[in-house]
Design brief:
Blueprint (H helix, E strand, L loop, with lengths): L5 H4 L3 H21 L3 E7 L18 H8 L2 E3 L2 E2 L5 H10 L3 H4 L15 H7 L3 E6 L12 E5 L9 E4 L2 E4 L4 H16 L6 E6 L36 H5 L4 H4 L22 H9 L3 H21 L3 H36 L6 E7 L18 H4 L3 E4 L6 E3 L3 E2 L3 H8 L14 H4 L10 E6 L11 E6 L2 E6 L5 E6 L17 H17 L10
Parallel strand pairs: 1-8, 1-9, 2-11, 3-12, 4-5, 4-8
Antiparallel strand pairs: 2-10, 5-6, 6-7, 9-10, 13-14, 14-15, 15-16
Helix pairs in contact: 6-14, 7-12
Length: about 525
Amino acid sequence: MKKISSSMMLMTGAAAVATLASCTSKQKEQASNKPMNIVYIMCDDHSYQTISAYDQRFIETPNIDWIANHGVRFTNSFVANSLSGPSRACMLTGKHSHANGFTDNTTTFDGNQQTFPKLLRQAGYQTAMIGKWHLVSEPTGFDYWDILVGQGNYYNPDFVCNGQPVKREGYSTNIVTDLAINWMDSIRDESKPFCLFIHHKAPHRTWMPDTCDLALYDDVTYPVPETFYDNYDGRKAAQVQKMNIMKDMDIVYDLKMADKENTIHTKSGLEEWGRQLYTNMTPEQKAAWDKYYDPIIEKFKKDKLTGKALDEWKYQRYMHDYLRVIHSVDRNVGRVLDYLREHDLLDNTMIVYTSDQGFYMGEHGWFDKRFMYEESFRTPLLVYLPGGKHGDVSEMVQNIDYGPTILDLAGVEVPQDMHGVSFLPLLKGQQVPDWRKSLYYHYYEYPDEHAVNRHYGVRTEQYTLVHFYGDVDAWELYDVQKDPENMHNLYDLPEYQDVIKDLKTELLRLQEQYNDPIRNKIQ
């Protein structure tokens, strides 16, 4: 064997660095030549206010923030219909609700129609849907699917895996993450690119924390929003809604005051459901739950709170439980990032973190969503694209754009009948001079438990114009730059009539562009 001299064995520092740089450069070049994988993580009802990349008042979310810090934070991200099922249908089809047929949660998604996962699959991608589906019909266009039944339970949820029912023990957010990692690790074909949807139930109502997080944030008192006691002056639809923390949040169902003596009762009709959530737990889960909640229930019964004291007690309970659920989500996002990092997938995987809509964290005294007002209409969107832009994107994007963007990334032609447009150029840091200047919104589900009237509207960089129709027939105008809380309806003020005229013209243009039948019925 030829002897290697010490001079050959020892490289100079400069040479070693050059060789390492060359290897790294080659690895990056090889990664860039690979088809891009997609990991799409979506929560249900995750407010942008409770992601520290957007707002640092309430919680730190370091793992979710990693996506923003190494990629893009969209500062003007919105939905087309702020309701779970319809929002998911808009995302999958790239079309507004009237075009995809799933206008509200009383309908069933037509799985025969075109969706972007189907187009990806045809192009050679593996597709997998894991977690919350909430579209009634079974998923189509996926090589693998393992979905929660209906809304799904936080504890010991029922799933349907490729058509077969499965009962799993544990906490939903952990289980969904386990299933997603297992699919990447043991089920997918590593020779093909993949698109994996990880859809969490959390933080949907009733905000049940994992047992390890039950006492988290107990030492924190959250500031009551300035608009908490909003009287909805000048906003007729807001006056008749039923999603007020003080009036409509159920003590047993939402706030877990299901006492063993069965002396706490509510009139909302949700009490029995709240007690059933507890009975679904294992003995070990119940023991942890009782240890934490029994003293709180006992104190609540003793204190006999009323009026403002009760209102703000309910707000604190809501915030604590919601944020504990978010903490679990963030922890599990970290598990997904760790897996991608440990298996050298970060260099060729786009990671998306979003929610199916925004959510109220006590603003206007509300929980839930539905309205075209900012906290509901606006949604978080963070995207990591290897080699892409770092920083903020201020252009207005909507969830109908997700499909076209992912298709564009995969090199698949975007169908002309999709309403959304690809924001891939924005992810790459490119200027798009003709980017949209307005967004269209249409909400349909009425009447329902929250009594938010049907409405449609247009939003520009400065204004939101919305028309409620049905039981409440009213127009509202907001200057979102001066009044981001949407407190002051400007519609009847003389000085805004020219603005309203222009916005109505733009609204009609969008309705015609998207062929919404409402344009022929109400103006």
